[in-house]
Amino acid sequence: MNDRQGWEDEAEQSVDDRGVLRCDGPSTWIKITSKKTYHVPSWWNGTKYKDGPGGKMTVEVTKNGTISGEITVGAEAELSGVIAKAKATVSTKIAASVGVTVGHRYSHDVTRNKYGHLQYGSWGYKVSWEKYRSSGSGCDGVKVGSGKATLPTKETGWKYWETAS
Fold first, then answer.
1. Given 27, 52, 161, 165, which is the most exposed site by the fewest CB atoms within 10 A?
2. 140 phi and psi, to 5 degrees?
3. CA dist., res. 163 & res. 114, Å (int)
C-alpha cells in the first residue's frame, strides 16, 4: 500500500490551542479537535483505475481538475474558518481547493492473483472542528457548532491498494 509515510508536517501541532482569545468584546473562534491524514480522492474520469490479476499498472493524469474541501455540518462560510484554523494548527499546506495539472505518471507492480487499484488525489486531512462564541464578559466560550471537514493540500499523487477481486 502507498501510505506515503512521513508526508505529514514534522512539527507536532496542539489540537487544543484555541489561538488568541479576546476577552474585551464578543468574539467567535474555531478549534480543531482532531486530525487524520487522508488521501482526498479526485472523482473525475481518468483518475481511478483497477487492473489485474497480477502484472503491472502504469497510469497518468491526462486531465485538469480541482479537488475541493468539504464540510459535513455548517455553512460554507464556516469552511473558510475551519481552513484558516487548520492551516494554523494542522498544516500550512491545507487549501480550500487544489488544481491538478496534466502529466503525473505512476507505475506499480500488482501482486500475483490480486487486483491493483490506483486513485489520484490530494494528500490531505480529515479534521473535526468546534466553533465557539464568547459574549466578551469572560474568556470562556460557548460551543455553537461542530462538524468534520475533508481538506486537501497542494500535495497530489496516486494512492495504491490491492483486493482479492
1. 165
2. -80, 135
3. 6
C-alpha dist (Å) from residue 165 to 3, 54, 57, 77: 21, 11, 16, 42
Tens of pLDDT along 59-114?
Answer: 887 666 676 776 665 655 677 777 777 777 777 777 777 776 656 789 999 999 99
Q: Which of 20-29, 63-72, 125-134, 142-151 has the lowest mean pLDDT?
A: 20-29
Instruction: Identify the sign of the CA torsion 131, 152, 109, 46.
Output: positive
pTM of the model: 0.61
pLDDT surpasses 80 at 146: yes
List all residues 6 or more positions away from 156 whose beta carbon is below 8 Å from its beta carbon.
67, 98, 100, 104, 120, 121, 122, 123
| 27-163 carries CATH number 2.170.15 | yes
Beta strands 65-68 and 55-60: pairing type? unpaired
Q: Where are the domains of the chain?
A: 27-163
